[in-house]
UniProtKB/TrEMBL annotation:
NCBIfam families referenced in this protein's UniProt entry, alphabetically: PRK11100.1
Record organism: Trabulsiella guamensis ATCC 49490
Catalysed reactions, semicolon-separated: ATP + protein L-histidine = ADP + protein N-phospho-L-histidine
The protein's name in its UniProt record: histidine kinase
Alphabetized GO MF terms: phosphorelay sensor kinase activity
Database matches in InterPro entries: HAMP_dom (IPR003660), HATPase_C_sf (IPR036890), HATPase_dom (IPR003594), His_kinase_dom (IPR005467), HisK_dim/P_dom (IPR003661), HisK_dim/P_sf (IPR036097), Sensor-like_sf (IPR029151), Sig_transdc_His_kin-like_C (IPR004358)
CDD domains: HisKA (cd00082)
Top-level class of the enzyme under EC nomenclature: transferase
Keyword Nucleotide-binding: no
Encoding gene (name): creC
Domain HAMP: 204-255
Superkingdom field: Bacteria
GO cellular component: plasma membrane
Protein location: Cell inner membrane
Amino acid sequence: MRIGMRLLLGYFLIVAIAAWFVLFIFVEEIKPGVRRATEGTLIDTATLLAALAREDLQSGDPEHGRLAQAFNELQNRPFRANIGGINKVRNEYHVYMTDENGIVVFDSAGKAIGKDYSRWNDVWLTLRGKYGARSTARDPSDPDSSVMYVAAPVLENRRIIGVISVGKPNSAMAPVIKRSERRMLWAGGALLGIALLVGAGMVWWINRSISKLSRYADSVTQNNALPLPDVGSSELRKLAQALESMRLRLEGKNYIEQYVYALTHELKSPLAAIRGAAEILKELPPPEVVTRFSENILVQNARMQSLVEKLLAQARLENRADIAQLTVNIEPLFARLARSRSVALEAKGITFQCDISASEVTADEDLLEQALGNLLDNAIDFTPQGGTITLRAETQGDEAWLSITDTGSGIPDYALERIFERFYSLPRENGQKSSGLGLAFVQEVARLHQGDIRLTNQPEGGVRATLRLHRPFT
């Protein structure tokens, strides 16, 4: 199972358990909470009715007193109330009054008059000066038929002369309890849904960050390292930096091995030529031979010096982690490139063209000029007499595309995959090869600019080198 799914399941399980625990407590507290609130209302009502019923009890005829008249009017008066979505259409109170001996002298339902209620908890406890309440089922076989009764004493000069009990069926509270439970369950379901969305978003973010690191690691494995990704988290950023540090250490070791091998290989030819020339000069040949082989020594020495300088420039560039990028004007840059190569262009009769649709780009000007100069040098070397080279600067959305197109023979198919390798070079018209570091330098410049370099053969012949920079024009 993927780590993201495990995290999501674990997170959802924790939230679900917490939600169940909270819902369980709330739901379990709803029913007793509603009943406690109802009991408080009943005791207030009973105390009020006890004060009103004192005169009825003292009169000796409570069945025709003010309390009895009020209940008769209440039962004959229709009413309707909507209480938070619960419709109430009838009086649900049951009130009875007993004398000081617990005998019922008034019953709002008219069924219990004359009965002895002195043993019921509400009456028995109230007559003894305590708080009296009880809950009794109308139908012993139906627990939902229970009625809650709360009693209050009827006082005369602080003496208890009777008891008023007010009862309300527990079934009357059922709609309130069910509605509250239903709302709690809906709220719990919504909570779980929101938690699932939050968890999915969190897992998506973690997977996205891990995927960035995976792509970065894969690019290192394929020797085409991408820029260090921004993972947006201090912990993952430390992991990314650790991977980058490991990459640099491993690449540093391979880098030295490859450079020593390549340098040894590249220096063999000029050293052999210098040695051969020296051996001939040692034999004191004629002056014209001395001149020819002395010039050969100087040429080979210049070749080695150029190779070493390019290696040092490549090494310095590859050890740079970042660059300072400023606004670069394209037109003056292209003019400098043409001016510095004007002799080589005129020697081969090459027509040089510029097509500038983008005026500015954000980059390191020196590095960009060196990279474009390397591409232009390659184009000059492989363009035949009377050919054409075109420099273009254009925009593609928020990217800058700088390209150099020649009319040469193009790149052979066998060389396409190796064209950016260090020290890999194709022979020029004169049969000579370059150091093979020019395109590697350009590729490193593109990497530092978070862009890329592409060389493509044109259908009409020649090569187009495109340097794409991930930087918007200003």
